[in-house]
From TrEMBL:
It comes from Rhodococcus maanshanensis. InterPro entries: AMP-bd_C, AMP-bd_C_sf, AMP-binding_CS, AMP-dep_synth/lig_dom, ANL_N_sf, ATP-dep_AMP-bd_enzyme. Residues 9-381 form the AMP-dependent synthetase/ligase domain. This is Acyl-CoA synthetase (AMP-forming)/AMP-acid ligase II. One of its GO terms (molecular function) is acid-thiol ligase activity. Residues 447-523 form the AMP-binding enzyme C-terminal domain.
Length: 535
């Protein structure tokens, strides 16, 4: 059958109505309660004139209203658009207009004022739904443009039960990428493909995809009542994938307003958290710092696993986590907004990230020909199967990232580089766009960053190319150290890196900063790092 995300959530809510679905700060909602709130939100959106297929931008931090907006929109077959709340005004204008959003859901006063300043540049926006009080600037700007302003609280007066039109697996979910190397792009997923790939067919801990909604319901009833804490903001792809995955399992999702390592560690004991989702070292480093500080003070016994996705997660950070709690299962997911969940990395003795053989992942050359296993040739990691339809309103980038082979198979080729061993195992080398060419030698930024993160004084680091007259490019590192650490020198950094890296990969220059700039989800801001390294 063809799966729809709203149908799946409603099926699980009917199967386990009394189980806790969402814990936000100190408030708990059961599946029945969350489904009722989502129905009310869906009714409010429909009353506001949102129709099937229309796009609605969610300019929100983590909150209950953020979750019910996502669910309410897919219930009425509309499309949620995730918005990075730290975008500049130019980036926000771009995402509102590029996504063709007809409405915006907004909460914080500073976000409302930003939206007010952009309304004249967003002609398709006809409705703004405000969580909380509406600021004067937004009200005035909306009146000048004849844009409707609706209080989100109006949903509370609507019935908790609703009838919805039939949905299909062809309904779209558009997920905007982080845009760390350019303006974000809207990845178009069919609901059925979204279920089968990012959500692992409803069976992330098994092999067989659920065949129908009856199997989804039965599996949710049998799944233990586990708590999953999503540390990332819901505007990030990994967080959205996790939200839907855990809802499909009938599990308890724990959310915080913002990523605060102190609150995350405290939630392990308070909410009996079994699994934490982070985004690489950007969250892993401050989290393990807090775990080390609070060891013996906070009960970590319930914590079974820490999972990362969407960014580099270095061996040194993992080793520190295991030193705090040796029985932890650490899982490093490989995936992207454009590919979904591709499985988990393993790490060999040399520190290489390895993906086991999979029929849905191959290595191809620049002409999309598969590279023979056992070859030493470096190629592009390509995903096959339930991949997105392409980028919203961008045929050129769609053709480049989602090319079609001669046999009609669509691939997802994101620029991840690797090599394939004789048994089909793919060794991940890094993202080609972050590859530094120094005198003809290729250096992948992620490998050098992982080495830097193992230094006891370094709290965070990004690696970028810097101009070099003789070599073309040189390896440059932008580094933040712990406040109480002695001043770090280039010679010390180089000596440390020589323990694990070839000579040509060692940084030739460093820039020390108070804080390495990352997105709210912990992803690298390479544009900022390049400007710092070049200044």
């Amino acid at each position: 059958m063809q799966f729809n995300l709203a149908d799946i959530f409603e099926t699980v809510a009917s199967a386990v109505p009394d189980r806790i679905a969402l814990t936000y700060e100190d408030e708990n909602l059961t599946y029945a309660q969350l489904d009722a709130e989502a129905n009310r939100t869906a009714g409010l959106l429909a009353q506001a004139g949102i129709t099937p297929g229309e796009h609605v931008a969610l300019f929100l931090k983590n909150s209950i209203e953020h979750v019910t907006s996502i669910l309410g929109l897919i219930k009425i077959r509309a499309v949620p658009i995730n918005v990075n709340y730290r975008y500049t005004p130019a980036e926000l204008e771009y995402i509102f207009t590029n996504s063709d959003s007809v409405a915006v859901v907004v909460e914080l006063p500073e976000h409302q004022r930003l939206l007010a300043s952009l309304l004249d540049s967003c002609p398709m926006v006809r409705t703004v739904l405000v969580v909380g009080e509406t600021v004067d600037e937004l009200r005035a700007a909306a009146e000048a443009r004849a844009v409707s302003v609706i209080a989100f609280s109006g949903a509370h007066d609507l019935p908790p039960v609703a009838e919805f039109a039939p949905r299909t697996g062809d309904d779209l979910y558009v997920l905007y990428t982080g845009g760390t190397t350019g303006y974000p792009k809207g990845v178009m997923w069919r609901h059925d493909d979204f279920f089968r790939k990012p959500l692992s067919g409803g069976n992330p801990y098994g092999e067989k995809t659920r065949r129908d909604l009856a199997e989804v319901a039965a599996a949710a009833k049998e799944f233990p009542e586990l708590s999953f804490l999503i540390a990332a903001p819901l505007m990030h792809g990994a967080a959205l994938y996790s939200l839907f995955t855990f809802f499909t399992l009938g599990a308890r999702v724990v959310l915080r307003r913002d990523f605060d390592p102190k609150q995350v560690v405290e939630a392990i004991e308070k909410d009996s958290v079994q699994v934490i989702l982070i985004v690489g070292d950007g969250m892993g480093l401050p989290l393990v710092d807090e775990m080390e500080r609070r060891k013996g003070e906070v009960d970590l016994s319930s914590l079974y696993s820490i999972t990362s996705g969407g960014a580099i997660w270095s061996t040194s950070v993992r080793d520190r986590m295991l030193a705090v709690k040796p029985d932890l299962l650490l899982r490093d997911n490989f995936g992207a907004s454009e590919s979904g969940n591709d499985g988990a990395f393993t790490i060999d003795e040399a520190g290489n990230l390895r993906m086991p053989p999979s029929p849905n992942m191959v290595l191809v050359d620049e002409r999309l020909n598969e590279i023979e296993p056992g070859s030493e040739e470096i190629g592009y990691i390509a995903r096959i199967g339930n991949v997105p339809l392409g980028y919203y309103k961008d045929e050129e980038k769609t053709a480049r990232t989602f090319p079609m082979r001669g046999d009609g198979t669509r691939l997802s080729v994101l620029g991840d580089m690797g090599r394939v061993e004789a048994d089909g195992t793919i060794v991940f080398l890094g993202r080609g766009s972050q590859c530094i060419n120094t005198g003809g030698e290729k250096v992948f930024a992620e490998e050098v960053e992982a080495a830097l993160h193992a230094h006891p004084s370094i709290v965070d680091a990004l690696v970028v190319p810097a101009p070099d007259q003789r070599m073309g490019q040189q390896v440059a590192a932008v580094i933040a150290t712990y406040p109480d650490s002695p001043e770090l020198t280039l010679a010390e950094v180089q000596e440390h890196c020589r323990k694990t890296l070839a000579g040509y990969k060692i940084p030739r220059s460093i820039v020390l900063v108070e804080e390495v700039k990352r997105t709210p989800a912990g992803k690298a801001d390479y544009r900022w790092a390049t400007s710092m390294a070049s200044s």
